[in-house]
Amino acid sequence: MPRQGSQTASGKSLRPVVLGRGDLSPYQFRFGDRNTQKAVRTKHQDKKTGALQVVELGNDELPDGLPAAHTDRHIYPNKSAAEQAAKARLAAFNRSTAGVRLEMAGRTDVFAERLIVVPGMKSGLDGEYLAEAVEQIISNKRPVIERAFLEATMAHRQIDTPKRQAAFLAQVGHESGQLQYVRELGGDQYLSKYDTGSLASRLGNTPAPDGDGQRYRGRGLIQVTGRNNYLRCSLALFGDERLLRTPELLELPQWAAESAAWFWWVRELNVLADRDEFETITRKINGGLNGLQDRLQLWERARALLCVSST
User: Fold this and answer.
1) Domain co-membership, 23 together with 155
2) Is 4 part of a structural domain of the chain?
3) CA 155 to each of CA 55, 218, 247, 268, 297: distance values in angstroms, whole numbers, following the listed order
4) Coil, helix or strand for 97?
5) Which residues pair with 224 in a beta bridge?
6) Rounded to an integer, what distance in angstroms lies between the CA atom of residue 73 and that of residue 50?
7) pLDDT, tens digit, for every residue of 96-129?
8) pTM score > 0.85 for this model?
9) How far from 81 is each of 99, 144, 155, 268, 309, CA to CA, in Å?
10) Domain range for residue 26?
């Protein structure tokens, strides 16, 4: 049964959970940006002329001394998408909330909407909070991708509904070993399939055994693989071919997350997620149904956490 407002399912009040310094592993405390830009500009490509068009959305909450307009580096497929992205970015800039992320091991008494009291940490952090979300992770490793990177890049690519988020998190969870790996595992023998043969050709690698299969192995949360995909990803994220020169950039947290969301976007997987076509999504990412059972299990867990009906 869901618990609401620090009450049990039967309505009995629960005392706040007190968390001291000794209860916590790393913690993050930040104030959200407030009115940090006077406007947001996004770009989209005109389908008829191919020219870049700019959408600019002004900030209604306009104090004095704001910096110049923020320009989003992404190029959106149409005007509607560019407008939605500008609205989302401006809304993010205008948040005026404080957030605290606490990590702790072995606690089962903390859940969403329960009051938490944090004393003895530092000025500004100490106080009472209502838990917004609780993640339960069974792992002895810390994820290499922080939640902030995932949230930001999902918002950029309109992975912004529970159905889309559940499908995306399940797929990248499987591809990255539940956010543990951003570089495809395997030695030269395993990676040789990308170096020569029909698969190498489909990926845009040279037919010669020159090591480009190893160079353009899977990287990022969704395992961008092959020279062709690295080139497309590089042009989309950076506007140049730098990933061909430095493919290891996709192992950095920001670009590991951004490359995954880009891959999701260009293959129009949001539409499939809206229709619950999870196996089709798997085929578009994997080329087959490898690891389907694990993907489905992660999907069910994500749907449960995000309150998505399974019917």
Assistant:
1) no
2) no
3) 17, 24, 24, 15, 24
4) coil
5) 219
6) 17
7) 445 566 666 555 556 555 677 777 766 666 777 6
8) no
9) 28, 30, 12, 13, 27
10) 17-32+97-130
